[in-house]
Structures are given as structure tokens and as C-alpha cells.
Amino acid sequence: MEKILDEFLYHLAVERGLADNTLVSYRLDLTAFFTFCRKYNLKTIEQANKDVILSYLFQLQVSGKSPATISRHLAAVKSFYRYVVSEGILQKDPSSDLETPKLPQKLPRVLSFEEVDLLLSQPLISEPAGLRDKAMLELLYATGVRVSELVSLNLEQVSLKNRCIRCFGKGAKERIVPLGDVAARFLAEYLDRGRYKLVKPGETSAIFVNQRGGRLTRQGFWKIIKKYALKSGIEARITPHTLRHSFATHLLENGADIRSVQEMLGHADISTTQIYTHLTRKKLREVYDLTHPRA
């Protein structure tokens, strides 16, 4: 099983171009499934039939795993078996008629305009690190990029003249995202008088660097935004994705069309973007109830 798993992960990496974090998730989920199989002395994938998969899902449920986690595990198993069948290792996919459970739609937390202003005003821009943080927060809200896309940005991916950045999202898909004047101004300031004080010799490509001069990591940025969220006094939990959600919702609230927002977010399927339309409809309802004389 492990040998086929390695071949499957290689297929996902090379032929489908999935991100490293996604590959790690697949490996962990499928290793857990194989461990379950070995516990019942099942040594080959031929022995792991539909009943075995159902038993595994039931065990996940009994152990208290959330519906989202169980759904993710099943998706990994189904993807693995599709590969196995396509390679001719198995003739029939035992997971083919197993349906992924429908999950309740959880609306993301979105900041108000005032909360965004408050959060983005926290960095002390008189210091190089504060100027870097200001540029990152402004860029994140201005473009809606994922935190992994933010920290992986290189100098050649930014055009201040054309007010845009070039991102590589999931599956290494490239997209161009426009950049607002405010974000462009603070990014230019950071590149002009902040970055050179932080970057170490030889690090020529990364835009955002840490205190040691190397590329900032996702974990490093999480600590940064957590610090400013605490400093701002905003009670709700704020993550890097909160600014991405706020970016999309605020665009739609101000009249942007959903296809354009989908393109800027890098969503492969528009149904992923449509969750933000629920938020804007909810906002419209609140405005109506507060302002209409016969509401």
C-alpha cells in the first residue's frame, strides 16, 4: 500500500501540480486509512473493499471527528482509488458509489470597513519591521491573496507601475490581481526604505523577509496578524483568511460582479465564490430592516 501511495503522491505533485501542503494532507489521511486496514490484517488494496471503507468512516465518526474532517478523509480515499483503477491496479473502484456527506455551509467571518481600518492602522511604520507589516496587511486586503501566496511573492511578481501582482495559486495556476493605490504606496515605501534593512546578503528574490533576513513563513505571518488583532482590540478571531473574506465581501457589497471576484481570488469553481453572495444578501437584509419604514 505504501509503495502505491508514494506513486499516487508523485502523480498528484507532477501531473496535477498540487501544493506541498495538499500533498502532506493526502499522505496523512491515507496513512491513517492504511493503518486502519492493517489493524484488521488487511495487507493489500484488493482487500480494502467498500465495507472496509465504511467501517473506517464510522470509526472516524465514533472518535469524534467533525463532518468536515470525515469528508476530507473520504475525498482522499476516493481520489486514491480513482488513481489505482486508472493505473490498472484494480478493476473496480470500491469507493465509487460512496457520496461525500453534505456539510452545513459555514459563513466566514468578515470585518467591517471600520475594523479593517483599525487593524491596518496598527503597525508602526517608522520601523522597518512595522513598515513591512503595514505593506503586508494592506496588500492582503487589497488583493485577497492567500497567505501562502503573500509570503511566496518575489520582486519580479510585482509591478508598481501597472498596479498589479502576479500570483501562483493552487495547482501553480497563475493569475494577475490589481493593486490599489494605498497598498501600492506602502509596498513602494517598504521596498524603498524598509526591506534593505531587513534582508540578508544573498536573499534577492523574497519581498517579505523576517528579522533574520530570510523569507517570511506562513507561521511567521500568522504571529504578526495575531499581534495586531490583539493590539487593535477587535474581539472576533482574526486570521489571514479573514482579510481575504473581507476583500471579497466588500467588493461584492460595492457592486463588483462575481466573475471578477472569482478571478481575483483564484477560485477554480464559482460555487466557492458564491458563499460571499450570502453574506452580501444578509447585509442587504439588515440594511432594509433598519431603514425601511414598513420593514
Protein described:
- Helix content is 58%, strand content 4%.
- The protein contains 14 helices and 3 strands.
- It has a 3-stranded antiparallel β-sheet.
- It starts with a helix and ends with a helix.
- The mean pLDDT is 85.
Which fold does the CATH topology of the largest domain refer to? Answer: hpI Integrase, Chain A
Rg estimate, integer Å: 23 Å
Global structural class:
mainly alpha
CATH architecture descriptor text of the largest domain: Orthogonal Bundle
Estimate the strand proportion.
under 5%
Low-confidence stretches: none
Please give the count of helices: 14
- Overall mean pLDDT stands at 85
Number of strands: 3
| Strand ordering within the main sheet | 1-2-3
Choose one word for the global shape: elongated
Reading the helices and strands in chain order gives HHHHHHHEEEHHHHHHH
In angstroms, what separates the terminal alpha carbons?
A: 62 Å
Task: Output the CATH homologous superfamily of the largest domain.
Answer: Intergrase catalytic core
> How many domains is the backbone divided into?
2
User: What portion of residues is helical?
Assistant: 55-70%
